[in-house]
Amino acid sequence: MARRGFFAEMHRQVKVAQREQERRQRIALREQSAEARRREQHQKALVRLGGQMAKAEAAERKRLEKEKREAYLESRQDEADIRSEEVADACAAIDTLLEATLERDDFVDLNTLRVAATHPGFERQDLTWAITPPPPAKRPSAPVLVVPAPPTGLAKLFGKRRYEEAVEEAERAHRRALNDWESGCTAADERDRESLPAHALAEQERLAMLEREQARYVRECQERDAAAAQQNQQLDELIANLGYGAPDAIQEYIAIVLGNSVYPERFPVPHTFTFEPSTAELALRATVPSPSALPSAKYFKFVKATDEIVPVLLPLKECKDRYARAVHQVALRSLHEVFEADRRGLIRTIALEVVTSALDTSTGIRGDVPLVIVGAERETFMTFALSNVVPEKTLARLGAAVSKNPHGLLPAERTGVRRA
C-alpha cells in the first residue's frame, strides 16, 4: 500500500489538530450550556445547604435535608441527560457519514499548502542596551576657612594676642582640612580610574556576545527561510508532477484528499491504497471500526432507587441496521471523495474494499473481514446524485459484493463482483 508522503502527513496532522480543537470546542460549549449551569447551581445549593444544616434546628434540618436530596437528584438527572445527548450526537454523526462529505468540495487546492517562514523576535534584546557606566566616586566637600570674629571694646585693647592665636589655629585647622580634602579627592579619582577598565571590559564582552547572538539569530532565520523555500519547491514539484500525471504525485495527492476526510471521533476510517498507472486504477481499502465501536445505548436514565445512571440499550436490529448503513455510506463516501477531488480525471476506476479487523475464533488470528467489495468507473459514478440515493441500492447498482450481515462480521463474497 502507498506510503503517506510529506505533504499528506503534514495535511493529516493539521486535520488531526483541527479535529482535536473542534472536539475541545464542543466540550467547552457543552460545559457552558444550560445543563452545565444548572449543575453548577445544584453544587452551590449543596454547599450552601450543607453550611446551613450545621446551624439549623431539628425541623429546619429536615427541610434542608429534603432540599439537599432534591438538588442531588436533579444533578444526577442532569448527568444522565448529558450522557444521553452525547450518545445521540455520536449516533447522528455516524448516521450522516455520506451527507457530511456531500456538503463540501473534496478538491484540495495544493497551493494552500504553501508555507512562509515565521521568525520570532530577537531574544537577546538585553544585549542591545549599553552597560551604564558606574557613577563617579563620592568626593568630600571642600573645607571653608572660618576665622573668629575680631574682638571689640576692651577685648580689642587687651585681647589682641589671644585673637591672633585663635586666627592662627583656625588657619592651621583649615590647612589640615584642605589636606584631607585633597587626599579624599585623589582617592575618589583613583577609584574612578580603576572602574573605567572594568566597565570597558564588560562593554566589550557585551558587544562581542551581541554580535554572536545576532549572527545566530540571522543563521536560524536563514535556516527557517531555506526550509520553507525547500518545502514550497517540493510543493511546486508535486503540482508539476501531478499535472504530468506522475504516479507518485497522484498517490501523494490522494493521500492528502483522504487525510482531509474528517470522520466522527467514535467512527474513524483510515484508508490505504495503491495506484496502477497502466490501467489508471486505484486499489483502495477503507478500514471501519468493529461493530462494538458503535454506541449500544439509546439513552441514559437515572434510577433513584439505586442511585445509578444506566443505559437503555438499543434493540439489536437497530444496532445491526446502523452498522450496515455506516459501512455502505463509507463505501460511497470513499468513492465520491476520490473521484470528486480528481478534477483532471487521472483515476478512471476504483477497486474498493471496505473491511474491518476481527479475530478469527477458529484460528485465534486477527485479520481483515471484507464487508463491501466494489469496482466503480468514474464516468458512471459521477452521474449519481448521491444526496438522493439509498446507499445499499447504489452498491447493488454498482454490482458490489456486500456482506449480508456486517454486524455479525459475515464476509462479503468476492465472486461475481462487476464494475459499473
Account of the protein in words:
This protein has helices spanning 6-31, 34-53, 58-95, 97-102, 154-158, 160-244, 247-259, 316-341, 378-381, 391-397, and strands at residues 271-276, 281-288, 297-303, 308-313, 349-360, 365-377, 401-402. The protein has 420 residues and is an alpha+beta fold. The strands form two sheets. A five-stranded mixed beta sheet has the order 1-2-5-6-7. β5 and β6 (365-377) form a beta hairpin. The longest helix has 85 residues, at 160-244. It is elongated.
Question: What keyword list fits this structure?
Answer:
single chain, 420 residues, alpha+beta, 5-stranded mixed β-sheet, 10 helices, 55% helix, elongated
Count of DSSP E strands? 7
- Rg measurement, Å: 43 Å
Largest sheet: 5 strands, mixed
In sequence order, what are the helices and strands, one letter per element? HHHHHHHEEEEHEEHHE
Count of helical regions: 10
Low-confidence stretches: none
Strand order, biggest sheet?
1-2-5-6-7
Percent strand equals 5-15%
Let me know the average pLDDT.
Answer: 88
Mass-distribution shape: elongated
Q: What is the terminal separation in angstroms?
A: 24 Å
Structural class determined from secondary elements: alpha+beta
Tell me the helix content.
Answer: 40-55%
